[in-house]
Design a protein that fits this description.
The complex is a heterodimer of chains A (376) and B (631). With 376 residues, chain A is mainly beta. Chain A contains two helices and 30 strands. The radius of gyration of chain A is 22 Å and the shape is globular. In chain B, the strands form nine sheets. Chain B has a four-stranded antiparallel sheet with strand order 1-2-3-4, with no helix packed on it. The longest helix of chain B is centred in the last third of the chain and has 13 residues, at 501-513. The chains are: A mainly beta (376), B alpha+beta (631).
Chain lengths: 376, 631
């Protein structure tokens, strides 16, 4: 027969075991340790436009070449002298099947394969324009976002198709981002909203700002937050696409819209350059820091460097709008964030002043990051 | 035709003379048909092109492209014991590591035949990319790699399910595949080089596929050479390097200088692939190019290559010189150490130091394999339907193994043999086939004549499907193939004896018989896609058919000035090319300036003289290109 005190302790422990995971789930893992790659340690340029992770290798597209980072070091820089078609590398897609890299540059599209660059320009191929912002791979179809529309390049037959204001429901051809979803391809169109391509049906469906206003948001959660879309990502776990705009963030699950502004959420700024997402995580790359949203708990975290102290500033915004600030000894290279990529639980962040590696607390030397990747 | 069965063939042979006499067919006198008889009907030649020996050394498999068949030769009795029908135009073969399965690539069927070697029956047929040629399995026999010569890629097939897992980008006309001895890499050769500027020498490529990840590990660049054929890796302690035959053209020099020598040379690339770096990209490979020609005698069409069992010797076939060269690899190594890699590609004194034997073969030897016992080599004589059997210890010809093709040599067959025979060129520098591999193009522009004499550089043109496309030559001055291939060739290109009348007629008959390959861009039901249909409308709306009428292979058969004359061209008039299978023929325009179809209009039509195209949108140009690919 247990005593009353003993029972009370057991009940207390049981209650703790019940509630602690909930509390823990509402507190996202924080990145307090950052290592930065800048011209001081081998980067060819401070401005990093794009980043992609291929297992233990990290590729970064900068304003002056393509960079390979291995074992926390810049191991190789590829420039136009190596065959890169242009010094500005704005987008990177890794073909996991073939191991090839597809590069968006300001001088056309490039396939980096076996150490060689195979280049495509609007003069030599069916590429719509040489200003290329993004590439995405859908099996053996390559999707390319250019200033003159969207290209679909069939890698088997060599057929190029162009979707522009003449052949797709888009007001503007200026395409910034592409994401491949489940049976769909999503395109971020600057001034034209989000375009959804049905792969099986071969037709487009546009998503636009329902109020049509450029400066204000009249209809919250009734549609895309703004037509000036800068980036797009698709979450295969939640089946949602997320669009970054210069006037806030939008998520869409096929039925409901989830829009966020800096005024009513923990989003660092409404000027969002890009977004990445997986599991419950949604990341927003803004001009005032890197913002994270746990979509399930509605908890926000923003990372930015503190210019005065040089340390990192972490701002946590809970669902009830309470704000907690934490200081980290290291920080992002810059608050102007251009893109992001995942490496297991680590993140790699392209900023205007270098590439930043956010090292997760679970990260252990020698541990495969792919193995460590879990849905949080 | 000279058939060869030397009296010393039986010396040293382990096979009793009586058995040999029974199984090796003696030379049969054959007579070509009367010149110009018009009787060019071809009996069913075998045209063996490649061979592999079974792991247990009992069988030699020979793939025969004109017979659409694969043969099994019993190596003990030296007899063809089985013949099996496969797909259309089979070109390559690979044996599974356990020897139970044979894979044959069918270039015109876009398939691989999977053959049970015990029953010698086709078990199933697997679809591949366009134009499968070289192929190999991995070491476990679970994955098949296939080089697609038309698709310019590599199919990676899961042999457990028979499905294609992925395609890897090759260069141009990928040809042969070789699994490295450690099983780590698959090497892929390419016949054609990178599409460079017409003013630059070609750069070819050997691709290395990592079999662990099935991704492209490395692309080894080979400067100033073309037509990489077979690949062989040195065995055992001498391992670590590859031999890859090539043709080395001096296409930027006036071809009229052939009689000065050195315009076309032939040799081997000695390649030490970069060692695998498990943590990142590999370092650069070491490439050294050596010539196999003699100072006053060239050996065109370096093609098949194999090492002897101990690696001491390498055997190379010269497909257009009917010769097998035997190279002492020890001397080769010494040569590589004594002469700089920069000098070797231009040294014609290398062969006398490394070539220890030149053995005559039959017509068009395209492949050579060495039996696992190391005592015998078999040379595949493509246009003789035979194998030359070589005794390795003595490097003597043991005899000719008849594969059972027709005995008579038709005019057409003789024409094909002439096409592949470099003896008509000064010092044997090249044959027609040297610059027209697979009856097609070598992909580079040639300086055929000096500026003072006429045209500057002109792109090579295909010989496929040209029978009804006269006149010939880019200036359109040759009204027929007899003019094109007759005295003009003898005087300006071969700088040697020309073909006699009978030979010329037979050669022309053969060239006229070269068919067009199937078009891969047209749906099997013949219907055009929406983009192709739009492109077709543009083609006719823009009156492209004025100069490219469909009824005459899309050529008006006359010359026209489309504003593409370059610096040294004395006239802007050029023969309007036919457009059949145009997608297989880059580069484009008379001088090969346009690397892609798009560039014809985006770069080289600034004055709208090659059709009024400046008002076209990019979408319309893409559609037009899609239509052109269907022709």
């Amino acid at each position: 027969m247990r005593s009353t005190t003993e029972i009370r302790w057991l009940l207390a422990i049981a209650a703790l075991l019940y509630f602690v995971p909930v509390v823990a789930a509402q507190t996202p893992m924080l990145y307090t340790k950052w290592e930065n790659f800048t011209p001081a340690n081998g980067m060819p340029d401070a401005k990093v436009f794009s980043v992609a992770v291929d297992s233990d290798r990290v590729w970064a597209g900068t304003e002056n070449g393509l960079v390979l980072i291995e074992k926390s070091k810049v191991s190789k820089v590829y420039t136009t002298a190596d065959g890169l078609p242009n010094r500005v590398v704005t987008g990177i897609a890794i073909d996991k099947k073939t191991g090839d890299l597809w590069l968006a540059t300001f001088g056309g599209l490039s396939q980096f394969t076996g150490g060689e660059f195979h280049n495509y320009s609007s003069m030599s191929s069916g590429l719509a324009n040489d200003i290329v912002y993004a590439v995405a791979i859908q099996d053996e179809i390559l999707w390319v976002a250019t200033t003159a529309g969207i290209n679909r390049f069939n890698l088997r037959t060599g057929e190029w198709s162009i979707f522009s204001e003449r052949t797709a429901p888009m007001h503007e051809p200026w395409s910034y981002g592409i994401a491949v979803g489940d049976g769909k391809v999503y395109v971020a169109v600057w001034g034209g909203g989000v375009l959804e391509y049905d792969i099986a049906g071969g037709y487009w469906k546009p998503y636009n700002d329902p109020d049509g206003e450029m400066e204000i948001v009249l209809f919250k959660n009734q549609g895309l937050i703004h037509d000036i879309v800068s980036g797009i990502s698709y979450n295969h776990d939640t089946k949602m696409f997320w669009a970054s705009t210069y006037f806030g963030m939008s998520g869409y699950d096929g039925h409901n819209w989830y829009n966020y502004l800096s005024t009513d959420s923990g989003l660092a700024s409404d000027f969002v350059n890009a977004t990445q997402t997986r599991g419950d995580d949604v990341w927003a790359c803004t001009d005032k820091g890197l913002s994270y949203l746990n979509f399930k708990t509605n908890t926000w975290v923003t990372y930015r460097p503190n210019k005065e102290t040089g340390k990192g500033e972490i701002v946590i915004t809970t669902p009830d709008k309470k704000i907690n600030k934490i200081e980290s000894p290291t920080s992002l290279a810059h608050n102007y964030i251009l893109n992001l990529a995942f490496q297991g639980n680590d993140i790699w962040v392209a900023t205007a002043a270098g590439l930043s590696h956010g090292i997760s607390q679970s990260h252990k030397e020698g541990t495969s990051n792919e193995q460590a990747r879990t849905s949080r | 035709m000279k058939l060869h069965f030397p009296t010393h063939a039986l010396q040293g042979s382990l096979i009793p003379a009586c058995l040999l006499a029974a199984v090796l067919s003696l030379a049969l006198a054959s007579r070509a048909q009367e010149p110009g008889s018009g009787n060019t009907a071809s009996p069913n030649y075998l045209t063996p092109i490649a061979a592999e020996i079974s792991p247990d050394s009992t069988k030699l498999y020979v793939v025969c492209e004109d017979a659409d068949a694969v043969l099994a030769v019993d190596l003990r009795t030296q007899r063809v014991v089985k013949k099996l029908a496969v797909g259309h135009k089979p070109k390559g073969l690979a044996v599974s590591p356990d020897g139970k399965t044979l894979y044959v690539s069918n270039e015109w069927s876009d398939t691989v035949s999977v053959i049970d070697t015990a029953a010698f029956q086709v078990q199933k047929t697997l679809p591949t990319g366009w134009g499968p040629r070289g192929l190999t399995t991995d070491r476990a026999g679970k994955t098949l790699y296939v080089a697609n010569s038309i698709g310019n890629d590599v199919s990676v097939l899961d042999l457990t399910t028979g499905t294609e897992m992925k395609r890897l980008t090759a260069l141009r006309s990928p040809h042969y595949m070789q699994l490295s001895r450690d099983g780590r890499y698959v090497y892929v050769s390419n016949i054609l080089a990178h599409l460079e500027s017409a003013d630059e020498s070609p750069v070819s490529e050997l691709m290395a596929i990592d079999t662990r990840t099935q991704t492209v590990a490395q692309r080894v660049l080979l400067p100033e050479v073309l037509e990489l054929r077979h690949v062989a890796e040195a065995p055992g302690p001498q391992g670590g390097y590859l031999l890859v035959p090539f043709m080395r053209p001096k296409n930027l020099n006036p071809l009229i200088q052939v009689d000065n020598g050195w315009i076309l040379t032939h040799g081997l690339a000695v390649i030490r692939p970069a060692k695998a770096n498990p943590d990142g990209p590999s370092a650069h490979a070491q490439v050294t190019e050596v010539l196999l020609d003699d100072v006053d005698r060239y050996y065109a069409g370096a093609d098949g290559v194999a090492f002897t069992k101990d690696g001491r010797y390498a055997l190379i076939t010269h497909a257009e010189a009917a010769t097998l060269s035997v190279i002492d690899t020890k001397s080769l190594a010494q040569r590589l150490h004594s002469v700089s890699a920069a000098d070797l590609p231009n040294r014609l004194d290398t062969a006398r130091q490394i070539v220890v034997r030149r053995l005559p073969t039959q017509s068009n030897p395209t492949d050579v394999v060495v039996a696992p016992d190391g005592r015998t080599a078999y040379v595949v004589n493509r246009l003789d339907d035979s194998l030359t059997v070589v005794d390795i210890p003595q490097f003597q010809i043991r005899g000719r193994l008849d594969l059972g093709g027709p005995k008579e040599i038709t005019a057409l067959r003789q024409g094909e043999q002439l096409f592949h025979n470099a003896k008509f060129c000064f010092q044997g520098q090249f044959a027609c086939a040297t610059c027209h591999p697979d009856n097609h193009i070598d992909g580079v522009a040639w300086n055929l004549e000096t500026p003072q004499l006429g045209r500057d550089r002109v792109a090579n043109r295909t010989l496929r499907g040209i029978a009804e496309t006269a006149p010939f030559k880019w200036n359109g001055h040759n009204p027929d193939l007899q003019t094109q291939c007759g005295p003009r060739i003898a005087k300006f290109l071969f700088h040697s004896e020309g073909f006699n009348h009978e030979q010329l007629e037979n050669l022309v008959a053969f060239i006229k018989s070269i068919p067009l390959p199937p078009n891969r861009h047209v749906a099997t039901n013949g219907e055009l896609s929406a983009a192709q249909e739009r492109g077709r409308n543009i083609f006719f709306q823009k009156a492209c058919d004025n100069c490219h009428p469909p009824e005459t292979h899309y050529t008006a058969k006359k010359s026209f000035d489309v504003g593409t004359a370059a610096k040294y061209d004395t006239s802007g008039l050029f023969d309007i090319p036919q457009l059949d299978r145009i997608y297989e023929k880059p580069p484009y325009l008379h001088n090969g300036e346009a690397r892609t179809l798009e560039e014809i209009w985006t770069i080289y039509n600034p004055s709208d003289r090659h059709g009024f195209t400046s008002d076209m949108s990019k979408e319309q140009l893409n559609d037009l290109v899609e239509f052109l690919k269907t022709l």
